[in-house]
């Protein structure tokens, strides 16, 4: 066996073992375990399954979970389509920053999204204050289905915008020009020509957003407003961590896992192929505005609306962090930051800050290590086994992080407590959760490497090490940097899994925000949110500096 084959099977075997032990093992241990309140009684049984799935209340929760995910996905697509049209047709000053800033909400921790929604759309938020100043009555909708949908749209529009605009931009403009010459109006051109061409990216976006909203936890936990808006994810958390009803929690976890596998399979099938059409030439928005073209003014309105929608709630977090309410008035103050950084004797935040960045760094490094083995295994697999391998390694994206966290909580309590420090368990969990995202970025970049390069390198007398150092790594360096920073950002903001397992020894910034929100300490939550927001913005800039690959544009290759 050649050294290359040894590397493939060695690193690939390490990745497979890690996923079996660290991801699938805890979940199967939880599902096949015993009820801690009734030792000797299995958590899962046919009787429990029949009881759970015949419960009309649980079936109602399942129905609402699917309904809110469907509405969230539809609304996200509808909001993203005008923005995708603008990005596919116009060039304008600041276009790159517009793309960066409108993508920022997707990188934020969900608990920070919740905070932004409360401060902007809440009963005393910016929107209601503006309505009061204008003489209109206040509106109260945040803690309801409407609030859930707005938060989901805010969080997921960047994903739909990125996917659809990437496909739309690469479509040839000759089709539209020909249809226009034949007398087709704008609506008919879109309905009969563009929509079929974009259907693959739209359905792929819909499936991905539906899956994300079905697994949404923090948004539903805070904005659900009561039992009426409970979802499957929240119910599993309540049963497993609050009521200690492990049999019903395990039954619902099994249902959630089946849904996740089904949706992931559908998502992989709907993945849009690389378009073969040449990209159309973008029009100059400034020139068309001077010419007073209606389309250009519509494009400008779309840009302003999306920018306001993306940045308005985040600006509310920033402003709330530097003000304090005293004597019936708001005053400018850095009190929240002084409290955070220990100038007033409280240093807990510094420990959480250190934990967050340490865990994120460790999780990203572990994801990169496991991802290399996974990547080699997938690239060297047959056409028949490759879809199975991709699905097995991408399942952490689809499976509920709440279920994953609860499974690890039970495993840690029964076996690892006192043997392994909890912080290392959290690092391992984060590494496994973000590894699929690392893989999703690196796989298209690795596939773009010409296979004959290694053969040419050998003919020139170069060793495999020389080929890796002088050819392969320089080619993949931008993608490696993108993948690492993206994994770091996701790990930095992860809340769901760590909320299931963390105790006072492991506190992170998302947990600090969640705790501050629960205590109605909005200034403290906002100050912590600004720290996370700045970190996410900084990492977003790093993600795009010199990068030739994209998580959301897998077909993009170097010329």
- Pairing-aware structural class of the strands and helices? mainly alpha
- Distance from N terminus to C terminus (CA atoms, Å) equals 35 Å
- The CATH class designation of the largest domain is Mainly Alpha
Contiguous runs where pLDDT drops below 50 for at least 5 residues: 548-559
CATH architecture assignment of the largest domain: Orthogonal Bundle
Range of strand content: under 5%
Strand and helix layout:
Elements: H1 3-31, H2 46-53, H3 56-89, E1 90-91, H4 95-107, H5 110-121, H6 126-133, H7 145-169, H8 173-181, H9 186-214, H10 218-223, H11 232-242, H12 246-270, E2 283-284, H13 285-290, H14 294-320, E3 323-326, E4 329-332, H15 335-340, H16 348-379, H17 386-398, H18 401-416, H19 422-447, H20 452-459, H21 464-493, H22 496-501, H23 509-518, H24 522-544
Parallel strand pairs: 1-2
Antiparallel strand pairs: 3-4
Helix pairs in contact: 1-16, 1-18, 3-7, 3-9, 3-14, 4-7, 4-14, 4-24, 5-7, 5-14, 7-9, 8-9, 9-12, 11-12, 12-17, 14-24, 16-17, 16-19, 16-21, 17-19, 18-19, 19-21, 21-24, 23-24
């Amino acid at each position: 066996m050649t050294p290359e084959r040894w590397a493939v099977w060695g690193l690939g075997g390490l990745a497979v073992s890690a996923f079996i032990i660290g991801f699938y093992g805890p979940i199967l241990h939880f599902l096949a375990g015993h009820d801690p309140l009734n030792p000797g009684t299995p958590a899962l049984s046919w009787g429990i399954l029949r009881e759970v799935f015949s419960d009309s209340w649980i079936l109602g929760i399942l129905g609402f979970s699917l309904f809110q995910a469907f509405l969230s996905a539809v609304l996200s697509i509808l909001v993203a389509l005008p923005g995708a049209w603008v990005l596919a047709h116009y060039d304008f000053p600041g276009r790159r920053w517009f793309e960066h800033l409108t993508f920022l909400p997707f990188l934020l921790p969900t608990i920070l999204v919740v905070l932004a929604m409360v401060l902007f759309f809440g009963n005393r938020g910016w929107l209601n204050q503006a309505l009061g100043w204008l003489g209109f009555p206040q509106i109260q909708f945040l803690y309801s289905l409407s609030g859930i949908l707005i938060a989901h749209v805010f969080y997921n529009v960047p994903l739909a915008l990125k996917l659809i605009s990437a496909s739309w931009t690469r479509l040839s403009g000759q089709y539209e020009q020909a249809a226009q010459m034949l007398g087709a109006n704008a609506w008919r051109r879109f309905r009969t020509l563009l929509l079929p061409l974009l259907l693959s990216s739209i359905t792929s976006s819909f499936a991905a957003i539906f899956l994300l909203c079905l697994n949404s936890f923090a948004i539903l936990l805070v904005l659900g407003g009561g039992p009426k808006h409970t979802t499957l994810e929240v119910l599993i958390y309540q049963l497993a961590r609050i009521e200690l009803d492990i049999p019903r929690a395990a039954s619902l976890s099994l249902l959630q896992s089946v849904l996740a596998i089904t949706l992931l399979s559908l998502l992989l099938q709907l993945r849009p192929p690389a378009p073969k059409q040449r990209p159309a030439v973008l029009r100059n928005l400034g020139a068309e505005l001077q010419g007073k073209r209606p389309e250009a003014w519509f494009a400008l309105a779309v840009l302003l609306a999306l920018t306001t929608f993306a940045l308005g709630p985040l600006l509310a977090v920033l402003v709330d962090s530097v003000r304090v309410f005293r004597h019936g008035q708001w005053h400018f103050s850095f009190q929240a930051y002084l409290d955070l950084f220990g100038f007033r004797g409280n240093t807990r935040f510094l420990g959480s800050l250190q934990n967050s960045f340490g865990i994120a760094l460790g999780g990203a490094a572990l994801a990169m290590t496991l991802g290399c083995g996974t990547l080699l295994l997938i690239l060297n697999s047959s056409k028949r086994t490759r879809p199975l391998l991709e699905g097995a390694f991408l399942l952490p994206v689809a499976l509920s992080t709440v279920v994953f966290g609860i499974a690890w909580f039970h495993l840690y309590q029964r076996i690892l407590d006192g043997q392994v420090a909890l912080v290392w368990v959290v690092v391992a969990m984060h590494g496994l959760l973000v590894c699929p995202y690392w893989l999703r970025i690196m796989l298209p970049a690795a596939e773009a490497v010409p296979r004959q390069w290694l053969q040419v390198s050998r003919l020139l007398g170069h060793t495999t090490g020389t080929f890796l150092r002088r050819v392969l790594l320089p080619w993949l360096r931008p993608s490696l940097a993108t993948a690492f920073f993206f994994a770091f950002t996701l790990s930095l903001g992860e809340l769901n899994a760590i909320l299931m397992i963390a105790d006072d020894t492991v506190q992170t910034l998302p947990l600090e925000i969640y705790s501050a929100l629960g205590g109605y300490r909005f200034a403290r939550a906002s100050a912590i949110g600004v720290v996370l927001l700045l970190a996410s913005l900084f990492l977003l800039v790093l993600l795009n500096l010199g990068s030739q690959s994209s998580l959301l544009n897998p077909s993009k290759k170097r010329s």
